[in-house]
Design brief:
The complex is a heterotrimer of chains A (271), B (263) and C (270). Chain A is mainly alpha-helical. Chain A has helices spanning 17-43, 47-64, 76-104, 115-128, 131-142, 146-170, 174-182, 187-218, 229-238, 242-270, and strands at residues 2-6, 9-13. Chain A has 2 domains: 1-40; 74-270, MetI-like (MetI-like fold, Orthogonal Bundle). Chain B has 9 helices and 10 strands. Chain B has a 6-stranded mixed β-sheet with strand order 6-7-8-3-9-10, with helices on both faces. A 4-stranded antiparallel β-sheet of chain B has the order 2-1-4-5. With 263 residues, chain B is an alpha/beta fold. Chain C is mainly α and 270 residues long. Chain C has a single domain (72-269), classed as MetI-like fold. Chain C has 11 helices and no strands. The chains are: A mainly alpha (271), B alpha/beta (263), C mainly alpha (270).
């Protein structure tokens, strides 16, 4: 904010001259970057398709309705697989995330110089890469199927869970830990009595939260061959069986709604 | 018997929290440590059980030198030093009973403690202590359901179930109302008498200290500036500890209204 | 239940169970175990295939130590540019659309019909997986970054408008009331009363969303919606693990830089 004098009267402005210039410059650069980005996208697009899109969308929509309800018989098994990929993947991830989180938290890491950076590196690399990419990789390594999907979900979730968990560990009340240590308790006892009870609510919340996300993600893992309902989606898309596609999409939407409801319920019960 | 010799603590920031403190506390004596905030009261207590690592000097508990112990020997010695905290420091999400039993952790193996399978003698002792402080009915309540005074009683039980020979008490009444403060102080003093425990009580309330203890030590910027009976505490001494101020209101003899909440 | 000491002494003590009703507790435990057994049984792992795959897995780990940036440098460059472009453009467009929708979805400043419409848009965007949306958009608009750009913009709307709406709902009402009391119009009320409180948070969230959009743009290519994902997919298909490793390393590096930048920017605006 600044007050300047103009023609003898005081004029109030929100920013001074330099501040104003900086803001304008930022807008200018921002707009230029956006225009350039748009140019790139535009160049890579066949605009004839774009203008044709409403017709194509209507065409696909017409073919997709009504969904082929009879196809449901073949979807129960993949749906069960999808649920298992999400659930077992989450369990596996949590088992690995807990030690990583303890190694990464400043107040519990055995060595802030050597071990903490390694734990943080595990967290970052796990988080940076989408589960679909992990699945793509694992399908190449251990072959297509549910197992690859499960491991992909687990690997992707380690970083997410460990990050939230180690932040929770860093926020605990140290005086409770100190009190347990003062009784002459061993290192592991201090962990079990001083730290664990304090992070339990966070742990439960994180688990359910991640399970919800994992269920969404596991619906599409089949696209790269990693099992679950995505496999049927891929098959139906390849054969242009739109009524089946629409049924699967409805099912996925339903699964997402149910999982969100379950996770909200469980979180409500914990907190 | 607890003996401190030339105990010194210099923090990494360069602050000299303790300057070569010498102190000896015979068995069964309750000692109040007074002094302005930042005088090093808390540091002194924590240097004894090495929650804060002393920079130099010695701490001897019943003839055992503590400052040179390795971590497992230190844990064994910590069992003999019960600690009571300002903000109670109970594990809030555990039950009262678990909090009391956690005082036995030094005596029980990891898996037994993890599964909450404490020996029956410990469980009985926990019940006895809770009964003694009037909280037996609360045994299965979670610690965060209790009031401040009740929490501090649980904290006392946790310290006593260790079967300690000395109690380290850090501002036990700072978070409590005046009446509860007196009750808690009285409880601590009574229990020390019953069990012939030595105790160091950090306390900022001078009147409360005078009311309950046999000996008062005044700490000022990390050095002992007074050591004597409560009756010797006069305006001069308080000025030496805390700096100039009108002290006439602070120094009181044990008042009479105290008797009513003794029941 | 007795509180006298004598009845308690000599009695074992057990932690009160988390679930009070014994029947419910056992149903939950048995149910969980049963599920675990059934679930574990239904994944049949071809262990010999996994075992054979370990070699390839090792090859991939080696590739990470020795990534190949050069032999497909051009593909990587083109793919990466496309990913960045998609992430940037979709974040900008997403924010621009999120602001009106977020305002409309905040119960305390919006009227009911507008509120319902905006909330349904948000719910739809959040329920649909990006990949699923991308598949449909590729079918409609054809292959290329346009489909990816629209997908990410749509996802950004669901994310940002919801958080923005919540932010406006819990913001300090008093401040907004004070401005209303001066007789300001709706737009003035927004600019002077709400905007100054919400803007720092909005900037923080936008940077965070840019980060997410970049990560997502890295996978959209797998279904043909443009970006580095396509290059990655090709590399995997040809078993060129060293190229794949190079791409993954670049992605991780960019994500780390973005996260670092967003930390700095958020610290500065808040």
């Amino acid at each position: 904010m600044a007050i300047s004098t103009k023609n003898g009267t005081k004029v109030w402005q929100r920013r001074d001259r330099n501040g104003q210039l900086k803001v304008w410059a930022m807008w200018l650069v921002g707009t230029a970057i956006f225009m350039w980005s748009w140019q790139q996208i535009s160049d890579a697009t066949t605009w004839a398709f774009f203008w044709d899109a409403p017709r194509i969308a209507a065409d696909i929509g017409g073919r997709a309705m009504p969904p082929r309800w009879g196809y449901m018989d073949k979807l129960w098994a993949p749906l069960w697989d999808t649920l298992n990929i999400a659930t077992l993947g989450t369990v596996l991830a949590l088992m690995m995330a807990v030690p990583v989180a303890f190694l990464a938290a400043r107040n519990t890491t055995p060595s802030a110089m050597f071990i903490r950076p390694i734990a943080l590196l595990i967290i970052v690399s796990s988080r940076s890469i989408n589960s679909l990419i992990w699945a793509l990789l694992l399908v190449k390594i251990i072959g297509p199927g549910i197992f690859a999907g499960l491991i992909a979900i687990a690997i992707r979730s380690i970083g997410f869970c460990a990050k939230l968990l180690y932040e929770a560990i860093e926020e605990i009340d140290e005086s409770q830990v100190e009190a347990i240590a003062a009784t002459g308790a061993g290192r592991w006892q201090v962990m079990a009595y001083g730290i664990l009870p304090q992070i339990m609510p966070a742990f439960a919340g994180i688990s359910v939260f991640r399970w919800d996300i994992n269920l969404r993600e596991s619906t599409v893992l089949g696209l790269v061959g990693a099992g679950g309902i995505g496999l049927q989606l891929q098959g139906s898309l390849n054969t242009l069986a739109w009524p089946q596609v629409s049924l699967i999409l409805i099912l996925i939407l339903l699964a997402v709604v149910v999982s969100e409801w379950v996770s909200a319920k469980v979180r409500g019960a914990i907190i | 018997m607890l003996r401190l010799e030339q105990l010194t603590k210099i923090y990494k920031t360069g602050d000299k929290a303790l300057k070569a403190v010498d102190l000896e506390i015979p068995k069964g004596q309750v000692l109040a440590l007074i002094g302005p905030s930042g005088a090093g009261k808390s540091t002194l207590i924590r240097c004894i059980n090495r929650l804060v690592e002393p920079s130099s000097g010695k701490v001897q508990l019943n003839g055992v030198e503590l400052t040179s112990l390795g971590s497992s020997a230190l844990r064994r010695e910590r069992r003999r030093m019960g600690m009571i905290f300002q903000e109670y420091a109970l594990v809030e999400r555990l039950t009262v009973m678990e909090n009391v039993l956690s005082g036995r952790l030094g005596y029980v193996g990891f898996f037994r403690s993890f599964l909450r399978k404490f020996p029956q003698s410990d469980v009985d002792e926990a019940f006895r202590l809770l009964d003694r402080v009037g909280l037996l009915a609360m045994a299965d309540k979670r610690a965060d359901e209790l009031s401040g005074g009740q929490r501090q009683r649980v904290g006392i039980c946790r310290a006593l179930i260790q079967n300690p020979s000395v109690l380290l008490v850090d501002e036990p009444t700072a978070s409590l109302d005046p009446k509860t403060s007196r009750q808690i102080m009285r409880l601590i003093v009574e229990l020390c008498e019953e069990r012939k425990l030595a105790a160091i009580v950090n306390i900022h309330d001078v009147a409360l200290a005078q009311m309950f203890v046999q000996r008062i030590v005044g700490l000022q910027s990390g050095a002992i500036v007074f050591d004597g009976a409560p009756a010797e505490l006069d305006e001069d001494v308080l000025t030496r500890i805390y700096g100039a101020e009108d002290w006439s209101e602070t120094i009181q003899k044990v008042d009479e209204d105290d008797e009513e909440d003794a029941a | 239940m007795s509180a006298t000491l004598d009845t308690r002494l000599g009695q074992p003590w057990k932690k009160p169970p988390f679930v009070k009703s014994a029947a419910l507790r056992w149903t939950m435990i048995i149910g969980a175990l049963l599920y675990l057994v059934l679930a574990l049984n239904s994944i049949d792992v071809n262990w010999s295939r996994v075992y054979r795959g370990l070699d390839r897995g090792w090859e991939f780990v080696i590739a990470f130590v020795n990534p190949d940036f050069s032999s497909r440098a051009n593909d990587i460059k083109v793919g990466l540019t496309e990913s960045v472009v998609m992430a940037l453009a979709s974040t900008v467009v997403g924010i621009a659309i999120s602001i009106p929708i977020g305002l409309g979805a905040a119960r305390n400043i919006s009227v009911l019909p507008v509120y319902l419409v905006c909330r349904s848009v948000i719910a739809l965007s959040r329920a649909l997986n990006e990949i699923v949306v991308a598949i449909l958009l590729v079918a409609i608009f054809g292959f290329g970054p346009l489909a990816g750009f629209i997908t990410l913009s749509f996802a950004t709307i669901g994310f940002l408008s919801k958080l923005l709406a919540e932010e406006i709902e819990d913001m300090d009402r008093v401040q907004a009331e004070a401005v209303r009391a001066t007789g300001a119009s709706w737009l003035q009320r927004y600019v002077y009363g709400i905007h100054p409180q919400v803007i720092p948070r909005l900037i923080g969230l936008s940077i965070y969303r840019l980060d997410i959009n970049f990560r997502e743009s890295a996978v959209l290519g797998i279904v043909g919606a443009g970006g580095i994902g396509a290059t990655l997919n090709t590399a995997f298909d040809r078993y060129e693990f060293d190229t794949a490793a190079a791409i993954l390393l670049v992605i991780i590096a960019i994500v780390m830089v973005l996260e670092y930048l967003s930390g700095i920017i958020r610290a500065r605006v808040q």
